[in-house]
Each structure stands twice: as structure tokens, then as C-alpha cells.
Write a structure and sequence with these properties.
Helix content: 40-55%
Radius of gyration: 31 Å
Strand content: 5-15%
Number of strands: 14
Oligomer: single chain
Largest sheet: 5 strands, mixed
Distance between the termini: 57 Å
Strand order of the largest sheet: 2-12-4-8-3
């Protein structure tokens, strides 16, 4: 059962901005949850911990091991929150009661509430837990009947009178079992009454301020983002933010673009609802009715479908994994939302914008100011008041292709791969056309190889970082790479010359290998080769970006 707490009708006690640390008993925290003083925003659809994880948490408490701190946010914001925890009904707070949202520790505190207060009727419930006083371990029960006398249900620990009624029954046991079990029972009860955790309370913060803190917390292994936070802020019976974003991604899956980050789509949805790309604009989504949010979702999906068509046909990107910067897609989708049918000249400008922002690294430092500037620029472009998309992206120094390493997560490595694909590279040993679609799948990097083999460079004292320079990377089949092995270029390039014959220059040109670079390689001059190859890459970028 899920609901929203109305918090706008009454005053809220002032809360200091600085985080307020405290140390609290876990049983008291559990009671605060059930009393509605601590609310659990609906970030997950259901309890996601496995049964053993719950037992492990309880064991950590029993052993007096640390279980991590909790993070609360005291706020007026209206978030989707749980009305039922571990089958237990939660009392909603009064309108003027300060509300504390639990941002970090939901699984832990839910587990503690369930273990201590469960009173359900399902024998196989994850909360049907007992403690074996003999073995000193926690276990799940599969019946509602009373367990053996040496086992105590965890929900008896929440009420001292009930627990000590059970405790008294242990007197009927014979010694020494009686003494051991009573000692273990007493220790268990006191541990769960006295165990304390550190709690940090954030106060008087907007979602904009809380979001970066929220995105950095990951104490249970479940990564949460502003999308989860905004899902809780915008939820209604008619609209679920994550369902809406996932419907957009599902529509893109057929073209291998369903792996985009939800936050990317959220930024576009914010713009489609009349805002911008920033967290401040995203926060404004909670002010819109469900119909407006649904409309923004539909506009967003249409824009993304056109964006994917552009990327696959005009930039030749076959999947989301090869996009240099995820936020390029945010701006592209806004362009196609505002301008669903560009003319030939506008398409040319959009292509130029893509290559300029990819090669310059523009999106590596995309901040709130840049987001606002880009929103203005694409709006002006779409309205035809500007003939180009004005963006302060500057032509990179050719040395960037020497200094940047080839890595799977590198935007410049992806940019280089797309540039190479545009030149339809030929395998320099066999003359066969490289399957660029396979190479650009980016699931592995086996289609990318070093023109100067790394083992050879290592043997002559070249550092690994420089050996892995982008300027040393070409597309090559695995079979040809095995033939090259660790041979110096002066050796294997003789084979290339023989195989290519009069087509040598064409084979090399498709790989952005100039005559100067080839001559340097024949002389095993790695530094001269890098300089010449970086110039060829730079020339290709200059042409594509129309610098």
C-alpha cells in the first residue's frame, strides 16, 4: 500500500542546514518508522533483500558489529512513501509534524522493523524469524506454531512484558541448559534494546541540494539516483516516473539504444515539460499534474526515436555503448523534439555540432550554466533565429590523440572509433573490408589493435600509457593481429607492401595512416609516427566538424 503525505498545510519546525549527527537505538528508530516520524520514500517497488541478508543483518547486531549509518532528510517536500512496512501499517504524521525521509538505510531499517514487529499470518514470510538460543543463530520459520522452547521469535523482543513471559518459561528446563539459554536470551534482548547506530539528519535542503548527496550513497549495493528521488516526488495513481522512462527505453531497445541511463531521459523529460536540463528544472516536475507528465513522456519518446535514427544513419553509431557522452543525447533529443523534421542544411549543422562536442570534450564539464546555455542555443536553432547551434566547443590540439589512452570508457576512444568507421577501414594485412558494425558494437575491443605492437614497444622501453595512445590504434582483424604479434613495424610492413601493391596508399588512407606516418613506422620511429598519425586524425576531425 503506497501513498503520499501532505505536508504543505501547516508549519514545519525550523531545521538547521548543516547535517545533524546523532546516535540512536535501533528499536527506537523502528518505532519512529511505525509512528510515521520516519518515512521511507518509495525508491524500490518491493523489498529487495534476500532472506539470508536479513538474517545476516540481525546476526551483525547480535554480534555487536557495525551495520553502517543512516541518513535522514527533514523536509517539506512531498514524496511517495510507504504506508506499510513488513506487513505493518504505518501511522501517517499530522500535517504540521516534521517529516524525516530515510534516504539511506531503507533495507536495514525495514528489516529491523519486520523482525521486531511482524504480526502477519503468512508462514513463509521473510519476517517469520526466530533466534536459536542453543546454536546462537537466526533462522526463518515455516510455521505459525510456537517453535521449540530453545527458540524465541524475534517479534517477542519488541515488548518487554511479552519477552519476559517467554523468558520465564525457560525456568522449566533442567540445568545446565536452563542457565545457558536464559543467559543467551537475556543477552539477545539487551543487545536489541541497546544497539545504537549513527544517524545523520539533513535539513532545510531542496531536492537540488539533496540529489548529489543521495546519488553518492550506496551502502546496500543498490545504486540510487535522482530518478529514484523524483519518482517518489512525482508519483500518483496515474503516473509512475520510472515506468514512464522505462517505456521510452523499451521503445529504443529494438535499435540497441535501450541501455541509456534513466537520468539522461529524465533531463529530456524535464525540458519537454517546459523546463531545462538541470536538477533545478527536474525538481519542478513534481509541480506538474499527471497529464502534463504523460504528455512530456510522449514528446520525449518521439524525440528519442528521431535522435536514434540520426545517430545510426548519419553518425553511424550502432548502439548506446559507443556514444561519446551520454549528455550529447540529452541535447540531441531536445533538438529533435523542437525540430522533428530538419532540412538538409539543419542536418548538416546538427552533424557538425555532434563532432565538435565529441572531439572537444565539451560534455566532460557540462554544468548548470552549460545546460542553460545549450537549451537557449538549441531553441534558437530550432526556431530558425540562428543558423547554427552556438556552443563554446573549441578545436582540440592534435596532441590530444597522442596523450589520450585507448580505454573502453574513454569518450575520445569512442570518437576515434566512429571516425575510423566513417573511413571504411581496410585490414592492412589482407585488404579485406573491416566489419565496422562489429567493431562499433563495443562489447569487446578485439577489433582494435596497436599499429606498433605493445610488446615490441615495451621491449624498447616505451611506457605502457604511451604505447596505448589513441594515435597507435587501428581497426584490424584478430587473425591479422596474431600474424603481426610482437614484430616491429619495419618487419611486418614489408608484408603489407607486398600484399597491397599499388593499393597501398588506399589501404593506409582508410586507416588514417599518412605517407609520413608509414615512413616513420618503416623506420620504427614511434614518436614520429604518433605525430604524423595524430595529424591525420586531426585532419579527419576538422573535416567532420567543419572547424
Amino acid at each position: 500500500m503506497i501513498g503520499k503525505t501532505k505536508l504543505e498545510s501547516g508549519p514545519i519546525a525550523p531545521v538547521p542546514k548543516d547535517p545533524q549527527p546523532s546516535v540512536d537505538r535501533i528499536d527506537e528508530l523502528a518505532r519512529r518508522v511505525l509512528a510515521g516520524d520516519i518515512l521511507l520514500p518509495q525508491f524500490q517497488r518491493e523489498f529487495i533483500w534476500k532472506r539470508q541478508q536479513v538474517l545476516d543483518l540481525l546476526d551483525s547486531i547480535a554480534q555487536n558489529y557495525p551495520i553502517g549509518s543512516l541518513l535522514l532528510w527533514q523536509s517539506r517536500q512531498e514524496l511517495r512513501s510507504e504506508n506499510c512496512i513488513a506487513d505493518l501499517k504505518i501511522v501517517l504524521p499530522k500535517p504540521d509534524y516534521p517529516v524525516n525521509y530515510l534516504l539511506d538505510g531503507q533495507q536495514r531499517l525495514s528489516s529491523i522493523c519486520g523482525a521486531l514487529y511482524w504480526n502477519g499470518s503468512a508462514p513463509n514470510s521473510v519476517w517469520n524469524i526466530a533466534y536459536d538460543l542453543r546454536k546462537q543463530e537466526f533462522l526463518h520459520l515455516d510455521t505459525l506454531d510456537d517453535p521449540p522452547q530453545h527458540q524465541v521469535r524475534m517479534n517477542k523482543l519488541s515488548d518487554g512484558a511479552i519477552f519476559y513471559k517467554f523468558y520465564a518459561t525457560l525456568d522449566s528446563l533442567s540445568a545446565p541448559d536452563k542457565g545457558t539459554l536464559k543467559a543467551n536470551a537475556d543477552a539477545l534482548f539487551n543487545r536489541f534494546k541497546d544497539y545504537k547506530v549513527a544517524v545523520v539528519t539533513l535539513g532545510d535542503m531542496s531536492i537540488k541540494d539533496v540529489a548529489p548527496i543521495f546519488e553518492r550513497i550506496n551502502s546496500t549495493g543498490t545504486r540510487l539516483t535522482i530518478v529514484d528521488l523524483m519518482r517518489a516526488a512525482t508519483w500518483s495513481q496515474e503516473f509512475d516516473l520510472i515506468d514512464s522512462i522505462d517505456s521510452v527505453l523499451e521503445a529504443l531497445s529494438a535499435k540497441e539504444f535501450g541501455g541509456l541511463d534513466r537520468k539522461v531521459v529524465l533531463r529530456t523529460m524535464s525540458a519537454a515539460a517546459g523546463g531545462g536540463f538541470s536538477v533545478e528544472s527536474i525538481d519542478s516536475l513534481r509541480k506538474h499534474p499527471a497529464d502534463k507528465l504523460k504528455e512530456a513522456t510522449a514528446d520525449c519518446q518521439a524525440a528519442y526515436e528521431k535522435t536514434v535514427d540520426f545517430l545510426t544513419t548519419q553518425i553511424r553509431i550502432p548502439s548506446d555503448s559507443i556514444i561519446p557522452y551520454a549528455n550529447q543525447v540529452v541535447v540531441l533529443s531536445e533538438i529533435f523534439r523542437l525540430l522533428p523534421m530538419p532540412n538538409a542544411q539543419q542536418y548538416s549543422e546538427i552533424r557538425k555540432w555532434f563532432w565538435r562536442t565529441a572531439s572537444s570534450g565539451y560534455f566532460s564539464g557540462w554544468n548548470t550554466g552549460g545546460m542553460a546555455r545549450d537549451k537557449v542555443a538549441v531553441t534558437a536553432f530550432a526556431s530558425d533565429t540562428e543558423k547554427e547551434i552556438t556552443v563554446p566547443a573549441y578545436k582540440p590540439n592534435p596532441a590530444i590523440w597522442i596523450n589520450k589512452p585507448f580505454r573502453a570508457d574513454s569518450a575520445h576512444a569512442k570518437t576515434l572509433a566512429i571516425i575510423l568507421a566513417h573511413h571504411s577501414p581496410i585490414d592492412i594485412l589482407t585488404g579485406q573490408q573491416i566489419d565496422v558494425t562489429k567493431s562499433l558494437a563495443w562489447t569487446n575491443l578485439k577489433e582494435y589493435h596497436h599499429f606498433f605492437p605493445r610488446d615490441y614497444l615495451k621491449s624498447i622501453g616505451v611506457e605502457a600509457g604511451l604505447a596505448n595512445s589513441l594515435s597507435n590504434i587501428i581497426m584490424l582483424t584478430s587473425a591479422s593481429n596474431k600474424q603481426i604479434s610482437n614484430r616491429p613495424p619495419s618487419d611486418y610492413l614489408k608484408q603489407v607492401q607486398t600484399s597491397a601493391g599499388p593499393d597501398l596508399n588506399r589501404w593506409l588512407t582508410t586507416n588514417l595512416i599518412s605517407e609520413a606516418a608509414f615512413v616513420a613506422a618503416l623506420n620504427d620511429d614511434y614518436n614520429s609516427f604518433l605525430t604524423a598519425r595524430s595529424k591525420s586524425i586531426d585532419d579527419a576531425v576538422t573535416q567532420l566538424a567543419a572547424w
